[in-house]
Amino acid sequence: MDNTEFLKKAIEKARESVAQGGFPAGAIVVKDGKIIGEGISIGNKLNDPTSHGEMSAVRDACKNIASSDLNGSTLYASMEPCSMCHSASMWSGIQKIVFACSKVKVSPEYYGGTYKTVSLNETFNRPLEIVQQGELEEESLEVVKLWEATFL
Fold it and tell me: Which of 82, 78, 76 is nearest to 97 (CA)?
């Protein structure tokens, strides 16, 4: 699989999240070309505000490899990660984030404000490589629009 296929898998996880009544965000963690963690954003169902798709994928990956060290891994996210998910990625050792939908395409309410994650990244001791794969942005936005039509 390549970046596009992995990112499409993250968008599939976002669809799964919406189907379960969650937020339209999904993510996977990949290491050495293999998916080691998957996550959906159903914190509202779990009564856990930290259960975003990215956080769930990081937790799943750590559990699956029996380590909190995800060094060398890439996080693929349907939407640009919030500051919490971005920071958790750094703390876990993830080195790269690839996402589809930029946060500027959705309401600032979804991110708790208008902060710039790139500015946060620049302050890390180990900044992550951040890549938007814009050709999949519309596909991810379709999931966001479905969620908005269903739950807002």
Answer: 76
- Nearest alpha-carbon partner for 71 in 51, 91, 99, 56: 91
Strands (E), the chain: 23-31, 34-41, 74-79, 96-101, 129-132
**Residue 60 DSSP SS3:** helix
Residue 32: per-residue pLDDT: 97
Amino acid letter at 119?
Answer: S
Q: Phi first, then psi: what are they for 64, rounded to 5°?
A: -65, -30
Q: Which residues are catalytic?
A: 54
Tokens of 68: 């909190």
- Where residue 54 falls (left for φ over 0; alpha for ψ -120 to 50; beta otherwise) is alpha
Taking the model in full, what pTM does it have?
0.96
Q: What is the pLDDT of residues 2-11, one digit of tens each?
A: 899 999 999 9
Q: For 40-91, write each residue's pLDDT tens digit.
A: 999 999 999 999 999 999 999 999 999 999 999 999 999 999 999 999 999 9
Helices and strands, number each (H, E), in the chain: 6, 5
β-pair type (96-101, 129-132): parallel
Please report, for residues 2, 23, 24, 79, 135, the alpha-carbon distance to residue 41 in angstroms, rounded to integers and kept in the order given: 24, 5, 7, 11, 23
